[in-house]
Amino acid sequence: MDKIKMGVIGCRVGRTWVAGAQVGEDTIAWAVADLDRDLARQVAEANDVPRVYGDYRELLADDEVEAVGVATAPDVRKPMVIEALEAGKHVLVQKPHGRNTADVEEINAVAASTGKTLVYSYFMRHQAENKESRQMIADGRIGRAYHARVHYHYRERGAYYEP
């Protein structure tokens, strides 16, 4: 099977997605886009990405890009996600994926109408403690879950958050 050619819009947080796509079994980072074209170029060069765009619409017009990661500021994500879906791309979107419920419902409706896959980036679903909690609920070990309150604290440090 050929690797899925992925484009990433937003090269600050998105640069980790670019690096991840390059080491994925099923993906390859094919293009990046950022308003800061110099940043996009740096990310591309550091990760052997062949195509660099300053405008995300150019990336969406690239017929070789099959899937798009949208890792931009929350207030501009919705139109980018919708345009990507309508351009025939599968989409991975950073959270929060909408500013309100109506935004999320609209995004989901567009994904359903295009038949493209829409995935929300929520890395915590794969953490051991969350998987174990889900399994405990599924197994009935803690009874029926009807309410949960979670406090999770961590420091936003490291390369993921550096500009």
Name the features.
about 160 residues; 6 helices; single chain; 6 strands; alpha/beta
Strand content: 15-25%
CATH structural fold name of the largest domain? Rossmann fold
Distance between the termini: 35 Å
Number of domains: 2
Number of helices: 6
Q: Helical amount among residues, as a percent range? A: 40-55%
Write out the strand line-up for the largest beta sheet, numbering strands in chain order: 3-2-1-4-5-6
Radius of gyration, whole Å: 17 Å
Q: Give the SSE order as H and E letters.
A: EHEHEHEHEHEH
| Biggest pleated sheet | 6 strands, parallel
Named at the architecture level, the CATH assignment of the largest domain is 3-Layer(aba) Sandwich
Shape: globular
Give the number of DSSP strands: 6
Please give the CATH class of the largest domain: Alpha Beta
Structure class: alpha/beta
Low-confidence stretches: none
The CATH homologous superfamily of the largest domain is termed: NAD(P)-binding Rossmann-like Domain
Mean pLDDT across the residues is 90
